Amino acid sequence: MKIPTRRNAFSLFFFFIILSETNFLAKTQNTTIPVNVGVILNDDTWNGKMGFSCINMSLEDFYASNSHYRTRVVLNSRDSKSDVVGAAAAGYLSLSLPYSSSL
Hints:
Blueprint: H1 6-29, E1 33-41, H2 46-65, E2 71-79, H3 84-96
Parallel strand pairs: 1-2
């Protein structure tokens, strides 16, 4: 069995360093950037539920065909409580409160 020389050992070490760097760079470029978007709909009606489902499906279809996009739209849904004033209040709360998926 041949013992590796210093040159072969250095070449192998250098190869693994280059390989690990390219793997690290590939992982950093695959990160996504979330973009929060507020959606105010009437959750009590069929139109509101269907509208939210259509928006979700269209986003899923868009990102399925454009998977190379780094930005991702995150929908923050609020209920308008079947009232124009409720919709305005939901919009105001969306702007004044930090994002929370539990609302």
